[in-house]
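Hello,

Our lab assistant flagged a job as stuck in the queue for most of the afternoon. It eventually completed. Since we weren't sure the result was trustworthy after the delay, we are filing this so someone can double-check. Below is the sequence as submitted and the structure that was eventually returned. Let us know if re-running is recommended.
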Amino acid sequence: MQHLKSKLDRGYTVEIKIRSSIDDINPTTIRNVQSFLLSQKQYHVEVKETTHSTGLFQIEHSTPAELFQLLEENKQRLNIETYIISQTTLEQIFLLFGKQIRATTL
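-- returned structure --
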């Protein structure tokens, strides 16, 4: 299992929720966060899912400490309410493995 995980590891999943208050003078949308993350050239960022106030991103070539620092330093500016950094799950790895097998057999 560990061999599969290290071979197919996709980095970290980052879930971000934007503060959404009617009183916000300059409201930030999830698109601003998405643009910010995509501009970080040292990482490979894949947008998995977005709504008006949440975003789910897959980020490779980073460590949890780097992601934590990046998000904390920009939390106020991007109007981030909460975020969760998690490792790629075994289920996500098996789904990716299945996609790769299907792609080679088609």
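-- support follow-up --
The delay was a queue issue, not a problem with the job. The result is valid. The helical segments are 2-8, 30-38, 64-74, 90-105. The two ends are 26 Å apart (CA to CA).
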